[in-house]
Each structure stands twice: as C-alpha cells, then as structure tokens.
Amino acid sequence: MTDSVSSGEDAFNALLDLGYSEREISEMVKSKSMEFQGFMSKEAILLMVAKKCGIAVGEAGREEGLSVEFEQNDEIDYDELTISIERLDENMSNLVLLGRVQSVFPIREFARKDGSRGVVGSFLINDGTGSTKIVLWDQQTDVMRSEFFEEGQIVQVIGAYSKLGRNDLVEVHLAKTGKIVLDPKNVDFSRFPLLKISKLNIDNIKKSNGYIPELEGVVAEIDQLKEFTKKTGEKSFLLHFVLRDSSGLISVLVWGMEAIKCLKKIDIGKAIRLENPYLKRNQKTGIKELHLTPRSKHFP
What we know:
20% of the residues lie in helices and 37% in strands.
C-alpha cells in the first residue's frame, strides 16, 4: 500500500488491503453520505473513510475530492440548499451559504511552486449560527474589489467546499465554477431571521461556532503564561484568561507572541473587547472556548 492515497479509487483499494470487504466499505460510505445529506461527493467520502481507518490521505487527494466542478442552474432554489454555518464540518462539498460579511482581509499575491504568481483573498461571513472564513483564489477575488463588497453586506456563496485551514479551523473555499452573489435578490429573508445584526453576549455565542464578530467583557481571571515546544522544535507561548459579562464566563486562549502582547494589556477587572475570536469546543473537556487567531484583534 502506498504512503498516502490521493483518489477515491486509491482509498477504496487501500481499505481492501486493510481487510475491509466491499460490503463493509459500501456501508461506511452510505453512512457518511446520509450524515452529510448530499453535501459531499462520493470521492470525498471515500477519502474521509480511509482517513478515519488510519490511512494517510495526501493534500492533493483532499483537494481533488472536494474542489469539483459545480454545475450552476438558474432554476435551482438555492434557499433549499443553504446550510447553516453551525453545521459546517471539514470535507463537505457543493455548499451553499448565506451570510453577512463580518470582516474583510487584504488580497495578497504569492508565488506558486512552479514560479507563477497567484492571488488569494478571504473574508468572514456570519449567518447568526456562527462565522466562517471564505477563501477565494485568482480571478475569484475580483468580487472583493467591487465597490459594493463591504462589511455588513449580505452575500450568497454558491458552489464551495470546506477543509481544515491553519490552526485546524474549518474554512470554506470557492470551487472553480462557484460564485459569490452580492446582495442576492431571490432570497426569502423570512427564512433567515438570524442574519439581523444584534449585540452578542457570552451566553449567546455558546450556541454558535466559528468566528464571533465582536465580544466585550471584563477579565475575571488570568492564568500564568506558559511556554511550550511545538512538534517542530520551535518555542511558543500560551496565555489563558477568563472573560466575564452579565450573562456568564468563557475561557480565552491566546497563542504565540500575541500571548505576550495580550498579557501586557489585560488585568483582572479591566474591560476588553475582542474582534473575530474563534469559538470551538475543547475536545478533552467538551466545553466551548475562544481562541485568538491571526485574524483576531483585542482592545483594552
């Protein structure tokens, strides 16, 4: 068996090599198909099943299984296909999202391995159930240069797929033939009441996932700054503090050099405002906590 698999066929054969029967593989694929309700191609499901069975899946395989051609059809009711951000998981495809632009990040150029130049842009959208980062490549970024593309604008993302990005956070990439619709006119907004902007508190956000637009509170507790060694051998830092408001408490984690900067600004009993912290569940405790990522900001 190869070190890693890069296609559905490779994944299927690798599962056979591990001793799974064709019937067992078929049942696992069927179970995952029902779980994701059509938001994942069979290719991607086979790769996911292989990964869960301990088979290494190469990055090229994940991209091939998810970044499929999206067939657009003007007669489709995209409202019916829209998935809420709180339901997002890695390796989903053919996604349709509707949300309000929460933050816009600078478009940047980069050099590919073959020496050619590429362009990447990203922004956050929020649908009331949570926030997620949308990533666009090359000509797809043209929509971000539109005078109508701005924070607060409602956008429809049609034909996208999800994957794990930096810090193991789920993000959404537009497929090759996907599109971004600014201020969509054919949306029944009565079906999406959570798109209304409202001030969030700690109790509110615990029902969400992903990036949180903004949260204010008072520092209730500060743990000692910890230094640790990454798998790469590089030294890093972790700061943990507890944020409090009138509705409850929540843990906040800050990583790297940003942890040191943050420690200098905060004090117990002092107010702080967080922009774009990432909310996720701690796998060990099962409790949701906020993480400050490179996309996040904090203000005393």
